[in-house]
Design a protein that fits this description.
Layout lengths: L8 H10 L4 E3 L3 H7 L5 E7 L2 E7 L9 H10 L2 H7 L6 E2 L22 H10 L7 E6 L3 H15 L4 E6 L2 H10 L4 E7 L5 H9 L16 H12 L3 H18 L2 E6 L1 E7 L2 E2 L15 E2 L1
Helix pairs in contact: 3-5, 8-9, 8-10, 9-10
Length: 289
C-alpha cells in the first residue's frame, strides 16, 4: 500500500477520477453525484458510529445556564445544516450518539426549530436582548460552513455570534483547556459500544482531555454511566444508556447535528471494497479484477 496525504478534499476527487490514486477517502459530499457518473470510478457510502455536534462550554456563562443552551438548540435549524452543508448525506442526529451504536435510544422527541420559544427561554434565563459569543472551528470546511449558518440563525433570537478559525493543533489545545465558548467537533464510538460513545463525552471525570469537551456535569448521568460500565447484565446497561441519552438530549451540553457517512471513491477494478464501523478500510480483502 502506498499512502498519499492530500489535504485539499476536492483534489482527492480529481485524483481518483484521473486514475492517479485507486482509493480516495473522505470525499466531499458535493462531489459525490458527479463521481457517480464517472465510468471507471465507484462510490461507496457507509454510516459511521460517529456524530457531529457543536459543543457549548458548560463552565462559561451564559452556557452554564440550561435554558440558554436549550434556546440555542431551538434556534438552530439542524435539518437545513444537514441538507446544505452535508448535502443530505448521513442522518440528522436524533440522539447524543449514532444509531449504529448498540443501545441507541430511538424514543427521544425530535428537537424542532422554534424561534419564538427560543426567545422566551433566553428571556427566562436573563438574556432578553441576547448576548455576544464566539464559535471557533478548525480548518474543516464543513464546520466553517456550519458556523456561518448558525451565525445567521442565532441572529434571529438576538445572539451575535462571531466566527474564529484555528489551526487544528492549536484548536484542540484550546478545546481541552476549556478556553472556547462554542466550537464544532465530532466523536466516534470506535468499539460500537455505548460506553465508548457516552462515557468520555459526558462523564464529569472526563472533562477536557478525557473527551468531555463541553465540561458537562450531571451526577445522575455519572451514576448511570458508572452503572453501564460496571454491569454485566445487558438489560441493565441498556436501561442506563437510554436514560443517559434522555437526560443529555434535554440538557443540551452540545447541539447534536449529524451522524455522518464515510464517503469513498475507488477504482472500479477493485473488488471486495468494504469498511469497518470506525471508517477504516478492510484492505486485506481487496483484490484486482
Amino acid at each position: 500500500l502506498t499512502w498519499r496525504t492530500i489535504p485539499e478534499i476536492a483534489s482527492r476527487s480529481i485524483e481518483v477520477e484521473a486514475g492517479t490514486v485507486d482509493v480516495a477517502i473522505d470525499i466531499q459530499a458535493s462531489e459525490l453525484a458527479r463521481l457517480e457518473k464517472v465510468e471507471k470510478v465507484t462510490t461507496f457510502k457507509e454510516e459511521l458510529s460517529s456524530i457531529n455536534f457543536i459543543c457549548l462550554n458548560n463552565l462559561i456563562a451564559p452556557f452554564d445556564n440550561v435554558k440558554v443552551r436549550q434556546a440555542i438548540n431551538m434556534a438552530i435549524d439542524v435539518d437545513a445544516i444537514c441538507n446544505v452543508v452535508y448535502q443530505g448525506t448521513g442522518a440528522v442526529a436524533r440522539a447524543p450518539m449514532s444509531k449504529s451504536v448498540w443501545a441507541y435510544n430511538d424514543n427521544l422527541p425530535p428537537h424542532e426549530r422554534n424561534v419564538e420559544k427560543a426567545k422566551e427561554l433566553l428571556a427566562e434565563a436573563g438574556y432578553p436582548d441576547g448576548f455576544t459569543c464566539t464559535m471557533t472551528c478548525d480548518q474543516n470546511q464543513q464546520r466553517l460552513d456550519t458556523a456561518e449558518m448558525v451565525q445567521m440563525q442565532l441572529a434571529e433570537i438576538g445572539i451575535t455570534m462571531k466566527i474564529a478559525s484555528m489551526e487544528r493543533g492549536t484548536f484542540i489545545d484550546n478545546v481541552i483547556s476549556g478556553n472556547l465558548e462554542m466550537f464544532g467537533l465530532g466523536w466516534t464510538a470506535d468499539t460500537g459500544d455505548p460506553d465508548y460513545a457516552l462515557f468520555a463525552s459526558f462523564h464529569s471525570s472526563m472533562h477536557g482531555e478525557g473527551g468531555n469537551m463541553s465540561f458537562y456535569t450531571n451526577p445522575e448521568v455519572d451514576r448511570l454511566l458508572d452503572l453501564g460500565r460496571s454491569s454485566t447484565d445487558p438489560e441493565v446497561r441498556k436501561d442506563a444508556y437510554y436514560k443517559v441519552q434522555e437526560i443529555v438530549w434535554n440538557e443540551v451540553p452540545c447541539v447534536f447535528l449529524q451522524c455522518p457517512e464515510d464517503l469513498y471513491a475507488y477504482n472500479s477494478n477493485l473488488k471486495n471494497f468494504a469498511t469497518n464501523a470506525d471508517g477504516s478500510i478492510k484492505f486485506a480483502q481487496l483484490s484486482w479484477n
